[in-house]
Write a structure and sequence with these properties.
Layout (H helix, E strand, L loop, with lengths): L21 H10 L2 E8 L2 E12 L2 E7 L3 H6 L4 E14 L7 E15 L3 H15 L3 H4 L5 H5 L1 E7 L2 E7 L17 E4 L21 H4 L4
Antiparallel strand pairs: 1-2, 1-4, 2-3, 3-6, 4-5, 4-8, 5-6, 5-7
Length: 215
Amino acid sequence: MKTKNFRTEGSRYYPKRYDADPLTRDAILDEGLVCHVAFNIDNQPFIIPTGYCRVENTLYLHGSVGSHFFMQMAKGIPLCINVTVVDGLVLARSVFHHSMNYRSVVAFGKGRLVENEEERWLAAETFTKHVIPGRWTDARQPGKNEMKKTMFIAVDIEEASVKYRAEGVGDDPADMDLDVWAGVLPLKITPLAPNADENGKQGVPLPDYIRNYQR
């Protein structure tokens, strides 16, 4: 595993919002569902959303072998990856002081096409478990032809920056007596009632890992 360094540019403005603990970084990455990957090709910037998972200090990006962007990332170009979890809306008495509570990771590394079959299967299994634990051993696992259509890009994290906000309202003293509600509106991913597929075999019991799903 490579040594983890943490960028601190900008921390002089909000030093209390930066966290250099690798465990904090990993917890945010493990909770998120979608990452945004930024890169540059011929002086043209791109950013794409995609699924991912983490194994120790490596992120695995999941995509199709027909993806132009994944084929570019497979060439070893530098990548910048962001995962953000929004925890709440901070509603102040003044519009200026409205904010969000969040946890965010920005990671840097180079793309690497995963070609080793053992690592490809590890990425496929970990990706499935990352999205919904319990599904890998319950559903039919990929066949060889299906795996041939799937591309995994590995990104060993060379540097990462963790930033967060977990505070209440910060109004100006002059606004404290305004007749305006102020506070935090917490947000989280909350599953709704599952909708069973109407095709195929009916009456299959709902698994507990779906019934009790949470991030």
